Amino acid sequence: xxxxxxxxxxxxxxxxxxxxxxxxxxxxxxxxxxxxxxxxxxxxxxxxxxxxxxxxxxxxxxxxxxxxxxxxxxxxxxxxxxxxxxxxxxxxxxxxxxxxxxxxxxxxxxxxxxxxxxxxxxxxxxxxxxxxxxxxxxxxxxxxxxxxxxxxxxxxxxxxx
Amino acid sequence: xxxxxxxxxxxxxxxxxxxxxxxxxxxxxxxxxxxxxxxxxxxxxxxxxxxxxxxxxxxxxxxxxxxxxxxxxxxxxxxxxxxxxxxxxxxxxxxxxxxxxxxxxxxxxxxxxxxxxxxxxxxxxxxxxxxxxxxxxxxxxxxxxxxxxxxxxxxxxxxxxxxxxxxxxxxxxxxxxxxxxxxxxxxxxxxxxxxxxxxxxxxxxxxxxxxxxxxxxxxxxxxxxxxxxxxxxxxxxxxxxxxxxxxxxxxxxxxxxxxxxxxxxxxxxxxxxxxxxxxxxxxxxxxxxxxxxxxxxxxxxxxxxxxxxxxxxxxxxxxxxxxxxxxxxxxxxxxxxxxxxxxxxxxxxxxxxxxxxxxxxxxxxxxxxxxxxxxxxxxxxxxxxxxxxxxxxxxxxxxxxxxxxxxxxxxxxxxxxxxxxxxxxxxxxxxxxxxxxxxxxxxxxxxxxxxxxxxxxxxxxxxxxxxxxxxxxxxxxxxxxxxxxxxxxxxxxxxxxxxxxxxxxxxxxxxxxxxxxxxxxxxxxxxxxxxxxxxxxxxxxxxxxxxxxxxxxxxxxxxxxxxxxxxxxxxxxxxxxxxxxxxxxxxxxxxxxxxxxxxxxxxxxxxxxxxxxxxxxxxxxxxxxxxxxxxxxxxxxxx
Lengths: 161, 639
Hints:
- The complex is a heterodimer.
- Helices cover 48% and strands 0% of the residues of chain A.
- By secondary structure, chain A is mostly helical.
- Chain A is globular.
- Chain B has 17 helices and 23 strands.
- In chain B, the strands form three sheets. In chain B, strands 10-11-13-14-16-17-18-19-20-21-22-23 form a twelve-stranded antiparallel barrel. Chain B has a seven-stranded antiparallel beta sheet with strand order 8-6-5-4-3-7-9. A two-stranded antiparallel ribbon of chain B has the order 1-2.
- At the A-B interface, helix 1, helix 2, helix 4, helix 5 and helix 6 of A face helix 5, helix 7, strand 6, helix 9 and helix 16 of B.
């Protein structure tokens, strides 16, 4: 038993053993931020070939989109959400409703009186927002920003993009 | 020389031990002494709250306790793992040590926020003499979680994957600004073996033996939903808990303490579900969720335990897996619509297909949505039937977006909740006749579900039995072990025009059978098969498997007998509480015994209550060229 414990202790990263170090990282998305800087290129890195990816995100720590304690930095919330939900977001937009679209609207701060317009804009522009089958997160965000800003009622919601 | 050297070492270590507390005490030794004295007076180290926070459990044989946590950093006293009082007093001492908080270090008050809160509540810390640390990192994390309530999420079993057999549980921290429609954005607390092992069998084997460190992590719920619902096609059940704000706070604080801890991970006892209960029960001082599961914790049993505490579960929400939704969509389509959906998703028809254009907009939308979901499903399960599934999926959803009708996804019937199925352990008491001899039988199984049991709350067609043991007493006075089967699994997944899963079974254990020399040895028997299953209407399922069998015993010719053959069978429910299972099996000799054993049988179960059933088994077997008939009637009790 002792032996197993020692082996375990040796195989764990040293930082995880230090008292009180919550070195859990975001727990996902190592590839997401591979050696890039700035939200768009970083998020893009991972997703160019994983639009309908079958891989669960790799476990890692120290990514810039999240704190060392595992929560997402607020400026990254929308980008990471889109990044992790592309296929369902595209599906919801094509239908004009759904839980993933509701969550995006919440992140963008869309008020209830503007939700119908938001859903309609997403539905009518889904081909533009997801411009290719492998659309990168930053392209999706840029396209969504264009769509919202061309609508007088929705233009104020581009702030979170 | 050597002795002197060790003496100096000893002396140094004693000095260090003496100096360390001295440095601690320098802050306000008198106040620390006062707090320690008061903690002893109140016997705080014996309180259940303290034992829960440090995860002390009674030792198995020796008196005393030990903590389940295996990371040294979780303890402030050198013997904190086994001495609750030393740990409590060392924790108090550490609270006096000021540390400048950085990314690498934080004060003990911040590392152990739940301990600080509880000790403060009990001892009433004087902020003038024991300054309260600001704990910036904790405050930021706490604010990000913005916890309002807690939900236990149960991921149902996915029987084709041995590492998920029993399901999984995780804890969701629901935020104050969250609605039912935005719960994807909540964070989850997940306890899992820390490994990159992708081979399910290696994972299962090492997991049984405690070969992995288990750790907690924080992840957005949408990551877990994607993993379970979309990729592994497992239904999720969300058990929303009714806890007071301060109870939620206690769990959140303790989660923070555990993020840096690790445990040895064991599949059956110290697994995700057990540790989740241990985390959850800090909510209330008197709440005891984990102790029934010290040695055996099945995720479905742990959610059942939640529902046993009155008022703890406020609401249960079902979240169907992608494949479940597709199944419901298919049932809502007519046969021609189904055909179009399939052809669209295999690129055998284009979105400009005349049959699609002829449909009413609602029906066309339902077909396109089904086709799109099916492309995604095929992609997620690794099928490569079209070269560019991403392009195809996009085409289908753009075609869908041009139809101005609401979403056509039908409501999925959640069926019976996992906590409302039969108990996972079973005892059968019965009597019968075998080859003309009367017997009484006691049949026990540790877990979990067989094909003839009631499916309510379980995955249909999935049989998982562990440690099934049958003891038989014959009227002539002989008692013997009839069967001992540590592992018996079967997965009957029906095939259709849309889904083509394999069905399989494997069984390993010891079983009595007649051999050529006339004896009935308890031979090691490992057998399994692969094949297919089909649904015949809503109440029947038929299957056919090619099988191989190996028996090992010294009474067998050459000590081993290998056979190859097949098995066919059908399950049919004549009434909701009644199930019939008919089967036939034939094996041809390959090596060893020249026997070709055959068996035909009819098994029936009639449920009297959820956890009580009658079972009638009839069979005719041929073993070593001798035909024998058997019949038994038993009472099954699930618990």
